[in-house]
Amino acid sequence: MRLAPLVRVLAATVLVAAPLAVPAAGSGAPETPTSRSGAERARAEALPVWLAPVAPHAENPTNPLAGRLWGVYRGPQDQVWRPFTRSTGATREALATIADRPRTKWYGSFVPDRKIRSTVTSYLASAQAGNPETLAQTAVFRMKPWEGEACRRATTPAEAASYRTWISELAAGIGSAHMLVVMQPDGPFLLCAPDRAAKSALLTWATQTLSALPNTSVYIDAGAADWCENGTAQESYRCAEILKLSGIQYARGFALDSTHYNGPVENIDRGAEILELLQAAGYGEKHFIVDTAKSGRPTRWPDMVPASKKDVRNNARTCTTRTMKRCVTLGIPPTPRPADPQWGLPEPQRTIAAQYVDGFVWFGRPWLYNQADPFVASRALDMARSTPWTATGPR
């Protein structure tokens, strides 16, 4: 694999912030099979992955996310589900844009060590709905301390022991289920930890433990296109360093944009550079996933506008129209075929996506306050109404 020439091409590519236009119905000559664009044909012929299994791209035949249904969890562990089931009419239809799509369930220390096994088992039962081949998804947000606190103090021996117990119980709960795992969102905080080596050992052990499960695919969080170290540095080698410190040798690959608002084009460019660095360091061919839950209006982190003067960028303002800028709205729906033409990627990024991007995945949660908790109906409704995407292509 040689990525360097392609990366140089990407550097000269104009980034796109909106999907390809689709001709309006009834606006011209009668439609015929030969007059329809490739994007339109794909949109008409393809069902979303939560309704029918989707084959992998020919360039990525080992993609573990393809060839199976992606499960949708329907139960009280998800903050969206209860408001959706209690809604009616137009509100229910709008909330279905989120509630009826596969989403990654985050688990952390808020689930006690003694309960994580039964909690994930219950989650799997709902998400798989009796079909053991269905893919479920979780994000492991268990390291303690993490985020800003990780830069100020070390993990205590008791916290480290608890972490190992929790991960072991999580692995027991997953068992042989088909599971996508996003390992430790907001990965760049590892680089500022005073006990970096100790946290690295724990994360590497966790990645190895979960990757050893027969049907689990682990993607380690590596930040975002505009974030590789606490928002101050954007060099890809820093993203690669996070992965090396977290056990990338055991993982399927890495994840990008768990909490930022970049578009898929920018993240694919970043991912290509990281792939090249990992290959040069002897880690072989890896793959990655990109969050698209909140990239309907791609925005750099410094440019994003908070929802109010009291908020931070984690709680970005929502788009209320389809032309509003510097706001958050839903992006491309979940899919293991990111290079399909209806998603509007420029050709250089499509080439990379077909071979190395296992999927566009909704592991971000912009409909939650501060991307954490609780669910905010007004945010969800704004994004459902302003998103430029349907389940199968652009609006």
Task: Explain how this protein is built.
With 395 residues, the protein is α/β, with parallel strands linked by helices. The protein has helices spanning 4-11, 38-45, 81-86, 89-99, 116-128, 157-174, 196-211, 236-245, 264-280, 347-356, 377-386, and strands at residues 105-108, 136-141, 179-183, 216-221, 253-256, 287-291, 357-361. A 7-stranded parallel sheet has the order 1-2-3-4-5-6-7. Strand 5 (253-256), helix 9 and strand 6 (287-291) form a beta-alpha-beta unit. Helix 1 packs antiparallel against helix 9, helix 4 (89-99) packs across helix 11 and helix 8 packs across helix 9. The longest helix has 18 residues, at 157-174. The chain starts with a helix and ends in a 9-residue tail after the last helix.
